[in-house]
Structures
1.
Amino acid sequence: MKTRTWIIILSSVVIVCAILWMSILNSLSPSKIVGIYQDGNLVEKIDLNSVTYQREITLTGEFGKNTIYISNEHIEMKSAECPDKLCVKHGELKSGGTPIVCLPNRIVIQFEDDSKEADAKTGAVR
Amino acid sequence: MKTRNLILTAIITALALVAFTIEAAIPPLTPIYGIKLGIANVFTLFTLYALGIKEAAAVLFLRILLGSIFTGQIVSFIYSLAGGILSFVLMVLLKKFFTLKQVWVLSVLSAVMHNIGQLLAAIFMTSSVQLVYYLPVLVISGIIAGAFTGLCAQLVLLRLKKWSENKL
């Protein structure tokens, strides 16, 4: 194939992906229910709307501890002992954002679609 | 493998390792895993054209193994390997369709494949399918990074045409 054909193909892929990314960012469900997973297992499910007091969850993995900070409205990875700390740099999640990921300790914080009843005080979903 | 090729492979592997280690010391631009330039890919590409498939495989896999040890990020080993294998297979399969002036296209395709491989490994490791949301960003970053590293390799190859045609 000619180089020009490739340039056209590749730039259209870039445009399609950019549009896709924008629509993903926009279409993420406005859910306030967040699930914390380690190694694919659910650690805790929290409804951010009904969190009444701030608290921290500490998860320990192969590469040290991760501290998750939860308050009314938002959740964030406060600190991590892993080498890259990308999860901390991700910042806070309020609703419908892309998941916070810690690959070293295999922790994922993501929004869930289902809306089950949550514990009024801790926001824990049963 | 001829002694000459063996030595060249060793030197290129060492160079790739240096590039990889320096790049690993640069703080990431974004909080998204997998977005980086991948300078070490220049060396793999160059070896693939200048020396051959076996040598390029040696450069790639030794660099991934030693690079993970040197930078102390054993975690990244699995992801690098998943991306590395996929992108290398793609490069070897598609190499014949590209002329020396289109090395950068091959590099783009393999970089995108590399990112897809890493994403699949991450989805597998965390069992979180939601990570697929990152695919568009990773494809874009793969295209940009691949074009850059591919152009680097291509310019070197064109200047060392004798090598790239295996005449040495």
2.
Amino acid sequence: MKKSNEFLLPSILFLGPTLLLVTLFILIPIVIAFRTSLHATTYANIDAFIGFEHYKSILGSSDGWMDIFNSVTYVMFSLTIVVPLGILVGVLLNRKIRARTLFRTILIIPWVLSQTVTALLWKWVLNSSFGPIALWWQQLTGSTIDFFNSEIAARVTVVFANAWNTYPIIVIITLAALQIIPEELFEAAKVDGASRRSTFWHITLPLLIPAISTIVIMQSIEYFNMVTLIYVLTAGGPFNATTTLSVRAFRTGFDFWHIGLGSAFSFIIFMVNIIFSSFYIRALKGKNA
Amino acid sequence: MKQRKSLDWNFTVEASTYTILAIAVIFTSFPILWGLTTSFKPLDQINVFPPTLFPKPVVFDSYIKVLFRSNFKVYLFNSIFMTGFTVLVSTALASHAGYALARFKIPHRKNIMFALLMMGMVPIVALLIPLYLLSVQTGLYNTRLVILLIYVAWRTPIMTWILYGFFSQAPIEIEEAARIDGCTPVATFYKIMLPISQSGLVSSALLSAVFVWNDFLIAFTFTTKENLRMVSVGLYNYITQYGIIWGELMAAAIVSIIPMIVLFILMQRKFVSGLASGAVKG
């Protein structure tokens, strides 16, 4: 009897503060967000109960579906660049090359930069009046370009800046996954006369896939939730071309002060996260099994 | 003949490896280098077309303005203070919680861990409005306390998971020996586990430091007072004012990234192991 009680008090003391904090600052706020999303609001004041009107106005409008479309394309195109690039650089960095540490350090650096700094650096590089890319564009095509004034160019720009900032994560995960592949596998392949290319396609890549698939789910969630990079780079423009659901949630709340509608966006984002997270947890479990 | 062909092939592989990596290096470093050269240019060389690559002469005007004639040093102090404090508090909380989950006999342990993982994955953007309402109602809006609490609540679940993984992989024999010698579970944690877990603690702390230092949304939403402002918001304010002063903005951006880059270069292994072990991003 004494044995089982031995853990009771320490458990409460060790776990209690964390659980309390999480309840107060994550769990309760989610409930409040849901409740607020069912009410009309003026600035920070919560008015009459209106049921699911906010949700209807989001999902029943072309603007709402445009935001969803923007989120999906932002996530998909970012992944399309980041995943192959990250795997390629990771595999190359794992080879026995000269100055490997130097290469690795430089190539991973964007990861420690914030979305704010990433956005500011690219905003300046792509500046249409004084930037080098605008100059080269002009020299190559003879026409001028403003990356923040055309819908297509702005969409490409945010994806590109995001890829720059986040591809090092795939590099790191690839490197980590490659270290645990036993050297004997490659030796055996060599003895059997497998070419480098077939070794890559038949041994390296299949062994990388479990690690990569987990991180791909994780990054999808991350990209879907991303606000800062887009907000600082384009503020969602031009003509809402780069307004994803998350950017919309933030701007509705804190640029336009529609707390109720913003909460409805927040709650939709929360639900999407729950669905994606369950995929993630399933992938993690699959990996451990 | 066969030998010859394989040599050629080897050379091609080597050459293309270096070529691809060199292109990647240019792609990666170009925006940073462009910002760096801009920050050393005299004012009349910044807003010109066509732009020049190198500053001539190199001047420190932008840095002097940012560091000595603006509030940026206040923002730097605030960011250092909040990052340090958050990392300390969340490491303390997460190490206790992680150890309890790894070693104590706790009813519903699996459920608690699942709940923590789920809570750790709730995005900040979904929490901003309710947290804003709560902080205004409780009078905590525009205080360091509320930002600290939000940062800690944001980072602790993920750190708990990382440290849980770390503790549960530690060899249990040492702890069993301590228990046989009469150590209580609590004493075992403080006397045995914490000292041997320093590398895991440092990895997860570094990871959180990057996230707090780089955060914009929380810092932007919960402070409007100038004396509480943090670096990321200070940077953002440069582009909202009329007529962006790019030289100063780039100097400020470079100053803000130096601590993280230095930390990263010095402790690269710990960063990478923290990231790889968690594979979780907030």
